[in-house]
Amino acid sequence: MFSKVKAAFTLMRWFHELVVMIPFIALYLSTYYFGESNIQTPLSGILLLCFTVQLLIAAGCVLNDIRDRDIDAVNKPNTRIIGRIYSLKESYLLFVLLMILVLVSSITLTYFYFPDWWWISISIVFFSFVYNLWLKRTPLFGNLLMAAMTACIALVIKQYLAADLHALNSEKLKLLFDLFALISFAIIVPRELSLDISDLQGDLSDGCYTLPAKIGEQKSKWVVVFLLFTFVISGLFIQYFYPNQRITFGVGTLLLIIYCIWLFRCKERIDYIRAGRFLWAIMIVMFLLATYFTFV
Predict the structure, then answer these.
(1) pTM of the complete model
(2) Which long-range contacts (CB under 8 A, 24 or more apart) does 250-259 make?
């Protein structure tokens, strides 16, 4: 029983769920701080929004593993969940259960707190299916969509807190929301692409023509470097107009250089996975630094 529960959390990417909580906590507390404890948007609403987003991510991850079960049988035969711990039928049942919870939570959120959520949630579900059923198997488009959906988390929070942000009229605070979206997008695209490199053999066996399958491992690494380089350049412009974020992007640039060196030394799948975890750490560090230097 314990192994089943543990496997369910693995399927739902428990670490990703924890990372996703950071924008909700940091952005809400930042708005609360600037509002001198008088913001009108209820905390219960942001908590329900966070919970609903977590459910959507969990459902998307389960669907992703269902769709990739043949690829995982090649790439990670000894650690895959579906086909080893959970049967395909059990996995579908878990997905359906999560979607029922999403529906109930979304109706409550839309009715009591966030009227715009109904069309946002429908869009998320639609693009999640588009990603898993089609774009995931195309060069780069799936990576871009996944990154865009991740970046939208900060923008959805911004929309939920729109009335308070308008009343506060703080450029530094508004920038913080946009920085969370930019950092998420800029980190997730190369991370997903580097994972595609690590999954190359399994993707080819299932007819998945990702960018590494099209141009090869080494050229794909250079694409990752180019994407991160454009992020660093955009950071220079942000630092020029917002000097308080210089340390955020300075530290981020240094860590990204280390990552690029690490990436070119990756040979085995486990090397890419560890490098990907380092990218997660870079994103978290930049989130925290951006939040801190918004107040100084």
Answers:
(1) 0.93
(2) 251/285, 251/286, 251/289, 252/183, 252/282, 252/285, 252/286, 252/289, 255/281, 255/282, 255/285, 256/228, 256/231, 256/232, 256/282, 259/228
Q: Which residues contact 296 (CB under 8 A, 6 or more apart)?
A: 244
Q: How far apart are CA 63 and CA 55, in angstroms?
A: 12
**Would you place residue 5 in the very low, low, confident or very high pLDDT band (cuts 50, 70, 90)?**
confident
- pLDDT of amino acid 156: 97
Residue 218: is its pLDDT beyond 70? yes
Other beta carbons within 10 angstroms of residue 241's beta carbon come to 9
Concatenated DSSP letters for 95-115?
HHHHHHHHHHHHHHHHHHT-T
Q: What is the pLDDT of residue 114?
A: 96
Among 11-15, 104-108, 119-123, 288-292, name the one with the lowest average pLDDT: 11-15
Helix axes 141-160, 117-133, angle to 10 degrees: 170
Cα separation of 27 and 154, whole Å? 8
85: tokens are 């711990």
* Structural domain boundaries in the chain: 2-295
